[in-house]
Amino acid sequence: MTQAVQTYAYLRPSAVHESTAGRSLALETSGGATPQGAAANPRFFSGFLTSPAAAAAALLAVADVAAARYHQPQLRASLDPVVTADGDRLRFESFSGCCGVHARLDVLADGLDGGDVHHGTTNVDVNNPLRESLGRLGAGDPLHLAVGPEALEVTTLDGPLVEKKVPLPDRWLRGFAETQVITAGFDLRAELPAAEAVRLLRSLPRSGGRSTPAGWFVPAGRTLRPTSRPVPGAVCLPGPERLVALQRVLRHALALRVYGPARATAPTASAWEVVLPGMRLTLTLSPDASRGFSGEGGVLTALAADACAGDADLVAALLAWDPRIDPAELAEQAGIGVERVRAALARLGTAGQIGYDPADAAYFHRALPYDAGRAEAHNPRLRAARALVAAGAVRLAGERAVVTVDDHVQHVRTGPDGILGCTCLWWAKYRGGRGPCKHVLAVGLARAGQPEGVR
């Protein structure tokens, strides 16, 4: 697997400090993006947490996911969470090493007190001594939170005091792109009060050598009832042991919300959100423990749409770490249609610049140090599709097309719903559930390259 190296450079380790003034949680930042440009160690917030114990437990849950591999668990991950400050909240995000679980903690305005939230995105240091300190925090005393160094003048001539170099699989990077496409299709499927939420989550398996098959739950009054098949209204829980990180916050839970597609006939991704005082902790699970988000293919169409690259640049210039992105408002500002804005947002998502929050039913802006070109370069289906077009393997015939690959031929045709289908084994297996196959992508690229009147 191709790997990049992510370098985290911190002025000092993150820590919980004790003093006569009380306790302070200092989360140190690495290189990140701000409205003023790149910053080595940006400072995003200095104030108090209104629910210290709940916040400590939720931060540990995000760190648990960053350190976990739910598929092939013997291979340990070690990735520092990403934090985005967007003026009214702090969002902490991480992916599991296998890329099958995305964790996000939203510390909302009600969870913060006594300081302004700035704007930007960076990584935060989560080390073992910090985890031990967070695990010992009680609920009695106030807790001051600083995201970023209290004083930048402590830098030395030798550079950062703490540096980590972490091998980072490209499939992990692509997970940010895929989750925003998948969760944008989610609706709120169920909401459970605290007691029912705790009962349900504590009944789930916590670990095990082999992944538990996907289960289905259907809303029944104030709880969820298991069902053996995907009946109408059911939500999927794929690999329930992957929700183990939520166990940390159950004693602080106010409610549980479950998000998923309106109708599913096969195992599908879902999002499980625990509502906390002034916060929300959400775990989004891929359709199977052995199936990382990076291979879902939801962004392939956006990556292949070279025509929307200019729109993406235009829309990107209008973003400002907005906590809620309104496509209609962006369309008015950019002078283009709403559908073009949505396509541009999807393309920006391939660089990790766009996330989606099912609780707000809205996109949000972040700025990760990745680019769409990197995502495209390491996507085998898109590379293969471009190679097919370059080799002249695509022959268009109205609504049908023929793609010749070596000594066999695949037929691509447009269905009644306007979606392209293919005769290849990939399409027969997934039916578009993991994005388009290379033949469908190649046909789309070939049609996009034709003169307007010939398509």
UniProtKB/TrEMBL annotation:
<dbReference type="Pfam" id="PF04434">
    <property type="entry name" value="SWIM"/>
</dbReference>
<feature type="domain" description="SWIM-type">
    <location>
        <begin position="407"/>
        <end position="448"/>
    </location>
</feature>
<keyword id="KW-0479">Metal-binding</keyword>
<keyword id="KW-0862">Zinc</keyword>
<protein>
    <submittedName>
        <fullName>SWIM zinc finger family protein</fullName>
    </submittedName>
</protein>
<dbReference type="InterPro" id="IPR007527">
    <property type="entry name" value="Znf_SWIM"/>
</dbReference>
<keyword id="KW-0863">Zinc-finger</keyword>
